Amino acid sequence: MAVARVNPTRMELTRLKGRLKTATRGHKLLKDKSDEMIRQFMLLIKRNVALRTEAEQALKSVLSDFMLARAVSTDAEIEEAVAVPGKSVKVTSGSKNVMSVEVPSFMVEATEKGETYPYSFATVTGELDNCIGVMGELLPLLIELAEVEKTCNMLADEIEKNRRRVNALEYVMIPEFKETIKYITMKLDEAERANTIRLMKVKSMIAGRN
Amino acid sequence: MSERSSIAALGDQDTVFAFKAVGVDAYAVANEAEGREKLRLLARNYDIIFITEQLAEALPDLLARYKTRAFPAVIPVPSSKGSTGYGKRSIKADVEKAIGTDILQIEENGND
User: Which of A27, A70, A178, B23 could form a disulfide with A88 if both were Cys (CB 3.0 to 4.6 A apart)?
Assistant: First the structure.
């Protein structure tokens, strides 16, 4: 490890010792943060997997039902039926704080006006009614999935960043400080010894002259 | 941030149709280039964007950009043609990014 170019002085030594202390404490704190973030991430990712599996399966079956429903009626009829949706989905989005990561949170607002089936039952087949009903029930699930998945994305990113910081402290900063402190200590000791020797030498010279 | 709270769906005609029926703002696009333009536009105005896996796979750079931001949440969903497994893979990528190795392997295989 390369020793940073410093003046081997007592003042520098004190300064470095202070920095080493801060770095060590910071390292410990970041490591704890990392542990907790991973714990939370594990909980969330499990939920994410479960939600996604459920949502994907449900959506797949709904979509194929939709295809069937479209096949029964003419395109024009279907387009007309869904052109003006009876419900409008509103979500309120806020933000949550998970381990000092700002993540979004979505709340489904109750749909206030309108009916689920905003069309005349005469023109549209029962298949479509069914599909729209199922799809409406599926939507809150999808919104929850969106929230959980986004949180996981952001948490994963933050964990990676945090790990870089921990590693930088552990493998670069802290060893460098230690090395430099050792270097300065040795230099100072060396100067001390040189001084002692010089004094002894002077003393013997004076003694020899008399 | 909370003023612009709405949901959009982006993808092929058949898929977005289903979303449209329940009151989600649906945008049908025919090809990648169109999808890219539309997604950029939608990202400014919507909080949640459901995008078909087929389209998501074609626009990895754009999705990566939105991934680390709080808004919008771009969520891949299977299209009417079926799932390509893209959504599962992105979860896997997240786990690998955070933990360093894919520890959910068994569950993933079991579900696919």
Answer: B23
